[in-house]
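Lab intake sheet, docking and co-folding queue.

SAMPLE TYPE: protein with bound small molecule
LIGAND NAME: copper (II) ion
LIGAND FORMAT: SMILES
REQUESTED OUTPUT: full 3D complex as structure tokens
PRIORITY: normal
SUBMITTED BY: R.K., bench team

The fields below were copied directly from the construct record.
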Amino acid sequence: MVGAYTVTSGIVENNRPTPDGSFDSGIINPGDSFPFVFNKAGEYPYYCTIHPFMTGKVTSN
Ligand SMILES: [Cu+2]
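RESULT FIELD (auto-filled):
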């Protein structure tokens, strides 16, 4: 999709985003990257603050 996005850690429930403060890219554009190092294994959910229906999860082993 064209536009601007964020990669923001946290979850979205009932269309309500709740950031957990672990990471936040700020505004990034398609094709841009957001480097982040996960120091602990685990699952890290994230969403886009501009389009909260866009969610995902990083699994760090
Ligand atoms: Cu977005």
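REVIEWER NOTE: Strands lie at 8-13, 16-24, 42-47, 55-60.
SIGN-OFF: pending second check by T.M.
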